[in-house]
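2024-03-11 09:14:02 DEBUG pipeline.ingest accepted 1 chain
2024-03-11 09:14:02 DEBUG pipeline.ingest length=435
2024-03-11 09:14:03 DEBUG pipeline.predict start
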Amino acid sequence: MAYNQTILNHVYNYYLSAYTPRSSSRYDSHKRSELRSICNSIVKLNKESPLYKIDTSQRCKNFAVGIKEEARELHNTIASLGSLDEEKILDKKTAYSSNEDLAAVTFIGNIYEDTQVPSYNIEVHSLACGQVNIGTFLPNTKMSLPHDTYSFDISINDLNYEFQYNIREGETNRDIQKRLAKLISTAGIGLHADVIEDGKGNTALRLRSAAEGTRSNGSPIFIVSDNHTSKTRGTVDYLGLDHLARPAADAEFLVNGEKRTSASNVFSLDNLYQVTLKGISSGDGDTADVGLKTDIESLSENVGILVDGYNNFISHTAAYTDDFSGSRRLLNQMYGITRHYRSEFNILGLKLQEDGTISFDKGELKHAALSDYAREDFSAVRDFANSLVQKMDQISLNPMDYADKTIVAYKNPGKNYATPYITSAFSGMLFNSYC
């Protein structure tokens, strides 16, 4: 069971890095009822689907996985603009910061009505930082340690990792430092290592934690030791890997004059705002006011984000048109959705371009939002967003519909049965390199 879980983790990590280096969001989680609905839709889809012979080339795999992830990205973009509810879509409030160099802010609350939301004043005294170890600066001469197999341990996040390496004939201090820097950085344990120089030709190995802030028990984020390692000792003392140059520290700041701390430079403020600290206040009066934009500004910004998300989907899908006819068919379907709202879009300053993307004029958009017909005019944009959500759900459910394939046989009408054929073909693309 543990072996199978390890294989699954490798497959999933390969999938994320090779096809979609994006982080997941809260919109990727679903209720049980939503998952049940998706499962029922897949069963119905497979029951009515003919038997296909599918192109199994690497290009086709990239295409199928790619358009599914682009659909997921646009779906989540629209969901982030308020809700997938038809009446609340694009109603999300947007936040402002009077000093973006000091603190950036995003509204994360769930308030969509005319409810009073407080504003805040933030003054930053210090930023959260991670732990830094800087080793001994050594000249670029032959390594003094004898040839052997060495190892040392790094304890981080309550886990212990052992690193082994060999010292070969003629290797210098810098050679070993560079090799260990690459070894540690690529291990994926939450540490970044590099080699720094002191200006005199001497170099040292620097270790930096990805995590910021102090731990609850006050212990270091990571500890380097070779006291109980399995191979030859001596690396830590010789290179000075256990020398703490800077301990981890929390961010310190004032919110409306009240002192607060955070283990990260990104934190939630009263479950209303997500604040990202970017700088330190230079003195009294160097603060950032944080609050909500007006409804007109919020609506205009939400429409802009929607258009950007739509344009990204169109441009990424268009990249496949030379190789896959399914991509051209998908683009035509998207154009059909957009053309349906062309006249309403023109009133709002949204222009449909020849390549299928949408351009917009912020000035015209704000002017339309101030008009007496704003609610009626912007209802077309909400309908457009709802149409996109439905289309993205359809693509996510069956991206193989746009892949190159040949129909082999139709099922017997009236005697169809559910098979996992379609979904298995897509899922198999993720595991193909591991079987």
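2024-03-11 09:14:41 DEBUG pipeline.report The chain has eleven helices and 19 strands.
2024-03-11 09:14:41 DEBUG pipeline.predict end
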